[in-house]
Amino acid sequence: MKTRSIQSAVVGLMWSTQSTVQGLPNIRHWCNQEDKLPRYTWLAHDGTHFGEQEIMDQTFILRTGFVKRSGGEHGGDWTASIRALPYVSHCYVPKNGLFLFVEQKN
Fold first, then answer.
1. Which of 59, 73, 96, 101 is least crowded, fewest Cβ atoms below 10 Å from its Cβ?
2. Which of 64, 52, 50, 51 is nearest to 14 (CA)?
3. C-alpha Rg value of the chain to the nearest Å
4. Closest Cα partner for 15 from 6, 5, 26, 7?
């Protein structure tokens, strides 16, 4: 994820669900139609200073958000939130791993 700003940080999220079958975990890094996700969408954003998105996987929902406060020597400060919620509140959700990475390009 990257904003339209010239000095934007590049932020990414990978996630994986613990499998009941031995083998390599299914790690997701992006959303596309071939992933068979029930839904992925931006809930709100302005393209530069804030955004909130929702990704529905098979057993849980990821909600991510960011806010940028402008100013300072390097263009501002970033705050991010990541929430994982059960898709159905009374169902068992396998353990999930989340991997967040941030890169600042100059």
1. 73
2. 64
3. 16
4. 26
Q: What is the pLDDT at residue 87? A: 77
Tell me the C-alpha distance between 41 and 80, whole Å.
Answer: 17
What's the CA gap between 30 and 79, in Å, rounded?
21
Name the token pair of 58.
């098979």
What is the Cα–Cα distance from 57 to 69, expressed in whole angstroms? 30
Mean pLDDT of 60-89: 83
- What tens digit of pLDDT does each residue of 40-71 get? 999 999 988 889 999 998 888 899 998 888 87
Strand order in the sheet with 9-17: 27-28, 9-17, 96-104
10 Å CB burial of residue 62 (0-12, 13-18, 19+) is buried
- The residue count of the chain comes to 106
Beta pairing partners, 7: none
